[in-house]
Specification:
- This protein is an alpha/beta fold.
- The protein contains 20 helices and 21 strands.
- It has a 5-stranded parallel sheet with strand order 3-2-1-7-19, covered by helices on one side. The chain has a 5-stranded parallel sheet with strand order 8-17-9-10-13, covered by helices on one side. A 4-stranded mixed sheet has the order 6-5-4-18, with no helix packed on it.
- Helix 1 runs antiparallel to helix 3, helix 2 runs antiparallel to helix 4 and helix 7 packs parallel to helix 17.
- The structure holds NADP nicotinamide-adenine-dinucleotide phosphate.
- NADP nicotinamide-adenine-dinucleotide phosphate (NAP) binds next to helix 10.
C-alpha cells in the first residue's frame, strides 16, 4: 500500500536532464543512492562525495560546487542507463542495501541505527514496522478488545496496526470527523512546520505534496485517505467522548463511560490507547475582564470563520507558531492589526517554507524509482544528525553574555541574530522588540521565510510588547494605561500542553486516580505507561515531544510498535494485564529529567509550554531519535508486574 504512483518513462534528452539536475531545487545527495539502488550499481557511490554528518544542515549536503557537478555528471550517466530500460536484475542483498544507506548518511551504518533508518527508508515501500504476529496464531479464542481514544494521526496509526495484527478495536472520537489537530486547526495560513516528506507515515509515504510544508487542508486529506486505505472508518464512533475509564480488578477490564448527544453509555474493553494529542486543549490567558469584551473573540484552534475581519481593528494575543502563521493573513484583510507579544521567538529561516515543490524535484520523484524514499531518508538523517547537539549544554562553556549553552549553541544564536538583523534592517525599533534574550532553542523555533518581518513592517500592523493589564468591553488596556480600541480579539495563546488526558477521569488499580497520581506533573515510562494503570497506553504522552529534530509521526510509530509488542506479550503468555513497576518508571523519569537538564530548554528559565506548572519539563524527549527507537523496540517483561 502506498501513495506513490507508477514511475514514468524517461523521455527527456540529455540536455533536458542536465538542466533538471542543475536546477537548484533538485536535491542532489539522495540522487546517487536512489540511482545505485535502481540500477544495482554501487560504483555510482563516489567515495569522494561521501557525505559529512557535521554538514548535514548545509545546502546540498555541504558539497562544494565542484562536488555538486561531479554528482550531476554521475547522475546523468546513470539516468541515461535508466532511460535505455536498464534496471537492477535482482533484489539488493542486505549488505548492498547497507552500503547504499551508509553512503546516503555519510556514516558506516550498523545495528539499530541501520535498522531504524531502513524502516524510515521503507525500500520498495515495504511496511517494515507492520506487526510480525497475529492474534489468530497466538490466542484466537481470547476475547480482547482495545478502545482507542481519538482519530487523529496517532489514533489512526494505532488502529491500523491493531487491524494488521487481527486485534479487535474501536475508536471513540469526540469530533464528527477524523484528523485531530488537522481538523481542529483551520485558521488561515495553517501548515505543517516540519518537512512534509518526513511528516507522513513511513509506510504511507507520499511524494507529490504540493508544497514542502503542506497546508492544513492537504494534511487533513492525507489522514482521511490513510483512514480509507487502512479501511478503519467503520471502526470509528464519531461524536463520542470518553468521559471516564475505571479499571475493574476482578474482571481485568476497563469500564468506559461514553457520552454522545447527551446520552451516556457504558463500554467495556481490555485495553485503552489514548491518542488524544498534546496540543489541542486551548489555553486562554488569565487577563482581568477577558469575558467582558463585547466583540467577537476566539482561539486559533477554534477559528471563527463567520467573523468578518475586513475593515476591522483586530488584536492578536500571542506570537507562537500558530499566531505567526495566521497574523499575516489577518493583516491582509483587517483595517489594523495590533500584535501583543510577551516573549519574542527565535526565527528559524526556511526559504522553501511556503514554496511549491519545484518541477525539477517533481521530475525526479516521477521518473527515478524510489527517489522519494531516498529523499525522505536524507531529510530524516539531516534532522537526526542536525540541530539537537546544538542545544546540548556544555558544562565547561562559560558565560558569553548571550545565555548560550555551548560553542555550537552560541554559533547558532549568532546565525539567527544575523537573520533577524537582515530581516529587520530597516526597522531598528522592531529589531529590538523581536530579538530574544534567552538561550537559542529554549522555546520552540518559529519557522520563517521572511513573511514575519514583512508583516510586522506593514503600516497597518503594530507590535505591542507592553503587557496587557485588562480587557474591557471595547478593547485592551496595557500596563502603561494605553487603551487599544478593537473590534475583535484573536487568541494565539497556545494549549494546555502539560494537562495530559484532561478532562477525562481515569481510575486505575486500587481506585487510584491518574490525575491525582500525577498531581500536575505527568510522567510515564517511555511516555507510554504509568504504574497502577494496567493495559492503558498513552500516545504522545509525557516527555515524547520532539521539538527540533524530526517528525512527531516517527515517535508515534515507535510508541505504537511498543504497544503492539505489549499486547503480543499478553496474548502469547495468557496474561490478563501488565502493570509497570514503580521503580522502573521512577528510574526512567530520573534519566529523562537529567537529560532535559542538559538541554537548552531545561536549563533556561524562560517560560515555555515544554514545562508544567511545577517548572519540570514534562513534554520534551531530551535524547536522540535512535535512543527512543532502541527503548521501544521490545517489551522487557521484567519491567512489569503480571496481573492475572
Ligand atoms: P504557543 O507556542 O504556546 O504560543 C502561545 C503564545 O501566546 C506565546 O507567544 C505566548 O507568549 C502567548 N501568550 C500566552 N499567554 C499570554 C498572555 N497572558 N499574554 C500575552 N501573551 C500570551 O502556542 P502555539 O503558537 O499555538 O503553538 C504551540 C505548538 O503547537 C507549537 O510550538 C508547535 O509545536 C505546534 N504548532 C505546530 C504548527 C505546525 O506544525 N504547523 C503550527 C502551530 C503550532 P509566551 O511566549 O510569553 O508564553
Amino acid at each position: 500500500m502506498a501513495f506513490t504512483p507508477d514511475i514514468l518513462p524517461i523521455l527527456e534528452s540529455d540536455d533536458e536532464i542536465a538542466s533538471i539536475l542543475s536546477h537548484a531545487g533538485t536535491e542532489l545527495p539522495p540522487l546517487l543512492p536512489a540511482l545505485a539502488y535502481a540500477l544495482g550499481d554501487l560504483s555510482l557511490l563516489d567515495k569522494d562525495l561521501w557525505l559529512n554528518p557535521t554538514k548535514s544542515l548545509e545546502e546540498q549536503g555541504g558539497w562544494t560546487l565542484e562536488e555538486q557537478n561531479r554528482c550531476r555528471d554521475i547522475a546523468l550517466r546513470a539516468i541515461q542507463r535508466l532511460r535505455k530500460g536498464e534496471a537492477r536484475t535482482s533484489a539488493p542483498t542486505p549488505e548492498e542495501l547497507r552500503s547504499i544507506m551508509s553512503w546516503a548518511c555519510g556514516t558506516k551504518l550498523d545495528g539499530s541505527y541501520l535498522e531504524m533508518l531502513r524502516e524510515e527508508l521503507a525500500p520498495e515501500n515495504i511496511d517494515l514496522r507492520a506487526p510480525d504476529w497475529s492474534k489468530d496464531t497466538l490466542d484466537p479464542d481470547r476475547d480482547f478488545t482495545v478502545a482507542i481514544i481519538g482519530a487523529g494521526m496517532s489514533g489512526i496509526l494505532a488502529a491500523y496496526r491493531l487491524k494488521q495484527a487481527g486485534v479487535q478495536f474501536v475508536i471513540f472520537e469526540k469530533n464528527d470527523a477524523i484528523g485531530g489537530t488537522w481538523l481542529d486547526n483551520t485558521y488561515p495560513g495553517c501548515r505543517v512546520d516540519v518537512s512534509n516528506h518526513v511528516y507522513c507515515y513511513s509506510f504511507m509515504q507520499k511524494h507529490d505534496w504540493p508544497h514542502f510544508h503542506s497546508t492544513q487542508e492537504v494534511l487533513l486529506e492525507y489522514f482521511n485517505d490513510c483512514a480509507d486505505m487502512f479501511d478503519i472508518r467503520d471502526h470509528i464512533r464519531f461524536t463520542t467522548e470518553v468521559s471516564s475509564s475505571v479499571w475493574d480488578e476482578d474482571t481485568g477490564t476497563w469500564n468506559l463511560n461514553l457520552v454522545s448527544d447527551d446520552r451516556e453509555e457504558a463500554f467495556s474493553c481490555h485495553s485503552i490507547i489514548s491518542a488524544v494529542g498534546q496540543l489541542n486543549r486551548p489555553s486562554f490567558p488569565d487577563i482581568a475582564g477577558r469575558d467582558s469584551f463585547d466583540g467577537p473573540s476566539w482561539h486559533s484552534a477554534r477559528w471563527n470563520h463567520e467573523a468578518e475581519l475586513e475593515g476591522k481593528h483586530v488584536a492578536v494575543i500571542g506570537t507562537g507558531c500558530s499566531a505567526v502563521q495566521f497574523i499575516p493573513r489577518v493583516a491582509e484583510i483587517a483595517a489594523s492589526t495590533t500584535v501583543f507579544q510577551r516573549t519574542p521567538n527565535w526565527l528559524m529561516p526556511r526559504p522553501q517554507y511556503q514554496k511549491e515543490l519545484p518541477e525539477s524535484l517533481l521530475w525526479c520523484f516521477n521518473h527515478l524509482p524510489y527517489y522519494n524514499n531516498w529523499f525522505r531518508l536524507h531529510l530524516f538523517w539531516r534532522s537526526h544528525e542536525g540541530l539537537l547537539p546544538r542545544l546540548e549544554v556544555d558544562p565547561l562553556w562559560g558565560d558569553h553574555g548571550d545565555n548560550s549553552v555551548s560553542a555550537s549553541n552560541h554559533e547558532l544564536g549568532l546565525m539567527l541574530r544575523l537573520y533577524l538583523q537582515s530581516e529587520f534592517s530597516e526597522r531598528p525599533d522592531l529589531l529590538e522588540k523581536v530579538t530574544p534574550n534567552y538561550t537559542t532553542g529554549a522555546k520552540r523555533f518559529v519557522i520563517d521565510d521572511g513573511l514575519w518581518a514583512t508583516t510586522l513592517q506593514r503600516p497597518d500592523v503594530t507590535l505591542c510588547t507592553d503587557s496587557i493589564a485588562s480587557i474591557t468591553t471595547e478593547g485592551l488596556i496595557t500596563e502603561d494605561g494605553t487603551f487599544y480600541d478593537v473590534d475583535a480579539i484573536i487568541y494565539g495563546t497556545g494549549f494546555k500542553a502539560s494537562e495530559f488526558l484532561t478532562p477525562m477521569k481515569i481510575v486505575g488499580k486500587g481506585g487510584v486516580s491518574l490525575h491525582e497520581q500525577w498531581d500536575g506533573d505527568a510522567q510515564a515510562y517511555l511516555g507510554i505507561v504509568s504504574p497502577n494503570f494496567p493495559n492503558l497506553f498513552f500516545l504522545y504522552g509525557p516527555n515524547t515531544n520532539i521539538v527540533i529534530n524530526g517528525s512527531i509521526i516517527y515517535f508515534s510509530e515507535c510508541e505504537v510498535h511498543y504497544v503492539t509488542r505489549y499486547i503480543r506479550h499478553l496474548l502469547e503468555n495468557k496474561i490478563t494485564a501488565l502493570d509497570v513497576k514503580p521503580d522502573v518508571h521512577d528510574q526512567y523519569n530520573i534519566k529523562i529529567d537529567e537529560g532535559n537538564e542538559k538541554m537548552a530548554w531545561g536549563i533556561s528559565t524562560v517560560n515555555s509550554w515544554y514545562k508544567n506548572t511545577n517548572g519540570r519539563v514534562s513534554q520534551n524527549w531530551p535524547f536522540s531519535l535512535l535512543e527512543y527507537w532502541n527503548q521501544t523496540q521490545e517489551l522487557n517483561p521484567d519491567d512489569y508486574i503480571e496481573l492475572q
